[in-house]
Design goal:
CATH architecture of the largest domain: 3-Layer(aba) Sandwich
Number of strands: 12
Oligomer: single chain
Number of helices: 11
Radius of gyration: 19 Å
Structural class: alpha/beta
Distance between the termini: 28 Å
CATH superfamily of the largest domain: NAD(P)-binding Rossmann-like Domain
Strand content: 25-35%
Largest sheet: 6 strands, mixed
Order of helices and strands: EHEHHEEHEEHEHEHEHEHEEHH
CATH topology of the largest domain: Rossmann fold
Shape: globular
């Protein structure tokens, strides 16, 4: 067994999908580290830098993401953390501690695996929670031509629209209220649907029609952890559920610590 460790901070350090994946991979591969779950307390966050700088610690994962501003011990942040302002993983690059938010890159890997190619496509985003903003920035860099943002709250709509216009000035952006838009017509003109509503956002959920026929060929990405799809999906719709997003976030974490991808098919069997 290797003396090197990757730490999994949680409160409690539950049997997460990442932990299941790491344990299974350790049983079938010769990993250069042992994955060690640890109970996360507030003082531990403040001293994480000292712990992680130990030569035999290769990195860590946080079950709940942390604001970059709460992690002054970081030496640098990677692309996802730059977009979101949060981290859920740390890796080492030439001895420096680098924070990353794997939510956006995990979503991009999931879309890529499903066959989605952003270049020249239109995207409908409903809600603004979680990794939505960072994901939009990655999609814009990958070449989407237009984003339609819908929300039930005019305040949240203005806030996110203002941020996107500031950060991605060349993106063609349209905004609208969930109360006023004909979703059937809107969906017929987009190639990707992203659901990113807050778990307790009853107002937005109540604004959505209970039944909706999704167009064939639509990619449907759900960022709501643990939620069932809002609309029933047929085979012609390429639905990417939250559990699949978690799997690809774990793939990204594995790559940060090992510099190569784990066996995807093996992890998919564990997820099932």
């Amino acid at each position: 067994m290797s003396d090197n460790l990757v730490l999994g901070f949680g409160n409690p350090p539950s049997l997460s999908l990442l932990r299941l994946h790491q344990q299974a991979l350790a049983g079938g591969m010769r990993l250069p580290y042992t994955y060690q779950p640890i109970q996360l307390e507030a003082p531990l966050v403040e001293t994480s830098g000292t712990i992680l700088r130990s030569p035999h610690i290769l990195g860590c994962h946080f079950a709940e993401s942390l604001p970059v501003g709460n992690c002054p011990w970081l030496d640098d942040v990677a692309t996802g953390a730059t977009y979101s302002g949060r981290i859920n993983a740390v890796f080492k690059n030439r001895g420096k501690l680098v924070g990353e938010d794997t939510s956006q890159s995990g979503a991009m890997r999931a879309l890529q695996h499903a066959g989605y190619r952003p270049q020249g496509t239109r995207v409908l985003l409903i809600g603004s929670a979680g990794a939505a903003q960072g994901l939009v920035q990655m999609l814009a860099e990958a070449g989407i031509t237009q984003l339609l943002l819908l929300h039930s709250s005019s305040e949240r709509l203005r806030g996110m629209a203002g941020t996107l216009k500031r950060d991605i000035p060349n993106l063609s952006l349209q905004v609208g209220s969930l109360h006023n838009e004909d979703l059937t017509q809107v969906l017929s003109a987009v190639q990707l649907l992203v659901i990113a509503m807050e778990p307790g956002d009853k107002q937005s959920r109540d604004s959505l029609p209970p039944h909706l026929s999704l167009p064939a060929g639509l990619f449907y990405l759900d960022l709501l952890s643990g939620a069932a799809p809002i609309w029933a999906t047929q085979e012609s719709v390429r639905y990417i559920p939250p559990l699949t997003l978690l799997l690809w976030q774990n793939v990204v974490c594995f790559r940060l610590w090992n510099h190569y991808d784990p066996p995807i098919a093996f992890l998919q069997e564990i997820g099932q």
